[in-house]
Design brief:
By secondary structure, the protein is mainly beta. The protein has one domain (about 15-104). The protein has 1 helix and 9 strands. Strands 1-2-3-4-5-7-8-9 form an 8-stranded antiparallel barrel. A hairpin with a 6-residue loop joins strand 7 and strand 8. The longest helix has 12 residues, at about 1-15. The N and C termini lie far apart (about 40 Å).
Length: about 100
């Protein structure tokens, strides 16, 4: 029974956070109000807003992530790794394409 209770607590510890209002920026869309949802303890997150693609940043290791864009009809892996920006830690950028995704 204790193992089951422990499993339940562990599941709660990694449960996604509720979406919170935020300000977002993407290279293609500029600045816009959005919802921010943390996905795990590593810092992965998802941003969404009506009329914009939903972006997911999945942390691979410290300062390195993979990005995805959900356009409603298809979910696309964005090319290359995204690195945490040195000038603004709320931003992730692709050094090859110059694209940037931020959430404050």
């Amino acid at each position: 029974m204790a193992a089951i209770a422990g499993f339940g607590l562990a599941a709660l510890a990694v449960a996604p956070a509720e979406a919170k209002p935020a300000q977002c920026f993407t290279t293609d869309d500029g600045h816009y109000p959005c919802n921010f949802r943390g996905l795990d303890k590593a810092g992965s997150f998802r941003i969404s807003a009506p009329g914009y693609p939903t972006f997911t940043i999945e942390i691979e290791s410290a300062g390195v992530a993979w990005a995805f864009a959900d356009y409603g009809t298809r979910n696309v892996a964005l090319p290359g790794p995204y690195l945490r920006a040195r000038d603004d830690r709320a931003c992730w950028e692709n050094p090859d394409t110059g694209s940037r995704i931020c959430a404050w």
